[in-house]
Write a structure and sequence with these properties.
The chain is of the alpha/beta class. It folds into 2 domains: about 1-35; about 50-135, 2-Layer Sandwich (Nucleotidyltransferase, domain 5). Helix content is about 40%, strand content about 15%. It has helices at about 1-15, 20-35, 85-95, 110-120; strands at about 50, 60-65, 70-75, 75-80, 100-105, 130, 135. A 5-stranded mixed beta sheet has the order 4-3-2-5-6, with helices on one face. A two-stranded parallel sheet has the order 1-7. A hairpin with a 5-residue loop joins strand 2 (about 60-65) and strand 3 (about 70-75). The N and C termini lie far apart (about 85 Å).
């Protein structure tokens, strides 16, 4: 009987408690999720026009792309001009203080660019930039 109780005591001493390790892993996971930034893609590759007065802008929560064929892309989905306002309003719900960047192809019509800007401004968003290439 004495052997059995010492064997049970030895088995209890050999158990590894992984609870503190799991706590640390979950805390690190939460930290990386909170501090990470995600790159949003418009859904189409555009050839941006060149500009001498271009300024860097690091963060943009809404990216709208206009292709050379005058197609409008938001979040990897092609949308019509009339749908731009609704799509931007939905994205503003996610980030109310966000900014918008329009990536217009150099071969796209400037009239369409102005109409897209007007649709975005109709949502109440005033911080809108047009993406260009540095010269």
């Amino acid at each position: 009987m004495a052997r059995r109780s010492t064997f049970q005591q030895a088995a209890e001493e050999e158990d590894v408690n992984v609870t503190p390790l799991l706590d640390i892993v979950f805390i690190m996971l939460i930290f990386f999720i909170v501090t990470s930034t995600f790159v949003k893609e418009p859904g189409v590759e555009v050839e941006r026009p060149e500009a001498v007065t271009a300024e860097d802008r690091r963060t943009a929560s809404i990216i709208v792309a206009i292709s050379a064929d005058d197609e409008i892309w938001i979040n990897k989905e092609q949308v019509e001009l009339e749908e731009v306002r609704t799509a931007v309003q939905q994205l503003r719900i996610e980030n109310p203080k966000g900014t918008a960047v329009i990536q217009a192809d150099s071969k796209s019509k400037s009239r369409l660019l102005v109409e897209v800007v007007n649709q975005i401004r109709a949502t109440g968003l005033t911080d809108i930039a047009v993406s260009t290439e540095d010269v």
